[in-house]
Amino acid sequence: MVKPPHEAMHRIFQHDPGLFSRVSRFLGVDIPRPVRATPLPTDLTETSPLERRVDTVLRFETAEQGDFLLAIEAQGGRNPDKPASWAYYTAYLWTKYRLPTALLVVCQDHATAKWAQRAVSSGPPQLPTLTLRPVVAGPHNMPVITDPEEARADLVLASLAAITHAAEPNVNAILKALSTALADTPEDIADPIVEFTAQGLGKHPAKHLWRNLVAVDLSFYKSYLVEEIRDEARAEARAEALVAALAENVLTVLEERGIDVSEDARERITGCTDPEALSRWLRRAVTAPVAEEIFDDQ
Predict the structure, then answer these.
(1) Which domain of life is it from (predicted)?
(2) Using a CB cutoff of 8 Å and minimum separation of 24, what contacts does 8-11 make?
(3) Is the per-residue pLDDT at 232 higher than 70?
(4) Cα–Cα distance, 209 to 217 (Å, whole number)
(5) Model confidence pLDDT, tens digit, residues 234-252
């Protein structure tokens, strides 16, 4: 199943195709800014039943180097089958469009980036035939943008920096700079940046910081993310109310039955946050001869 970080790592280049020319300087290559960029179909399936899809394909038109294709793959981990798939993608695109074809792999961890940037040949050592050399964007070479002014100058690059550093300690500083830069950005521009960043962070702990920053620093922003945060807050409030009510019911049943409740037992009941445990204690409170016997360890 395709996960949000996977989508964000390649779709951000669809949102702003010129991003690749700005990223290229961090990859050790110099790609001129395109005059025009056109998304191409990502379905590379032939007549055979095997389906092959590349994540994103862009056609760049440049004044200096002419046209070329860029295939973009988001990679979440090492996969020994991927180099053969990437070789197929680039060879197929080269054959179909008769244009020079490059491959960019976007990663979120150093191990995957190191693995992905290896040169892989399809033939034996003495007959390499077709050699695949992807360029890789990841935490090892993407900029760490912690200055709000620098983030404001290129919001999409700052979002990609946050995504590729999602598992790194410096991601918090990147996110704070990005949220500050977005605070005075028109909503139609901020909208996709907020969403790409949220998707790209996936299940990394930094997602919680980003959600809070969006809710506080970008309180004007009315996205699904803000609504989700509000829904979670309401759910937490309901859960807290349920726990408090169950604890009160346990004490009420014991007191109505004339059962003495020690301070230790009272603190344990009122301090419990597990509704299932409180429900068990409530059932036991109906028949327990002493308060302490409602607990699981009695």
Answers:
(1) Bacteria
(2) 8/74, 8/163, 8/196, 8/197, 8/199, 8/200, 9/74, 9/106, 9/107, 9/108, 9/163, 9/164, 9/200, 10/55, 10/56, 10/72, 10/73, 10/74, 10/106, 11/56, 11/196
(3) no
(4) 11
(5) 677 788 888 889 999 999 9
Cα 140 vs. chain centroid, distance in angstroms? 18
CA 173 – CA 98 distance, rounded (Å): 44
pTM recorded for the entire structure:
0.67
Considering only CA atoms, give the Rg of the chain: 27
For residues 34 and 28, give the distance between their C-alpha atoms in angstroms, rounded to a whole number: 18
The whole-angstrom separation of Cα 170 and Cα 165 is 7
Calpha distance 4→72 (Å, rounded): 16
Cα–Cα distances (Å) from 82 to 116, 183, 272, in that order, read: 9, 40, 50
SS3 call for 298: coil
DSSP 34: P
Structure tokens at 239: 């859960």
More confident residue, 124 or 99: 99
Band of pLDDT at residue 212, cut at 50, 70 and 90: confident
Nearest to 58 by CA among 16, 2, 113: 16
Summary count for the chain: helices (H), strands (E):
12, 7
CA distances from 87 to 103, 225, 246 (A): 9, 38, 61
Beta bridge partners of 101: 69
Residues 6+ apart with CB under 8 A from 135: 24, 27, 28, 29, 102, 103, 104, 105, 117
Annotate 75-111 with b (16+ C-beta within 10 A) or e (fewer).
beeeeeebbeebbbbbebbeeeeeeebbbbbbbbbee
CB of 273 closer than 8 Å to CB of 242: no
Please give the structure tokens belonging to residue 167: 């598992």
Helix, strand or coil, per DSSP, at residue 101? strand
Burial of 228 (0-12, 13-18, 19+ CB in 10 A): middle
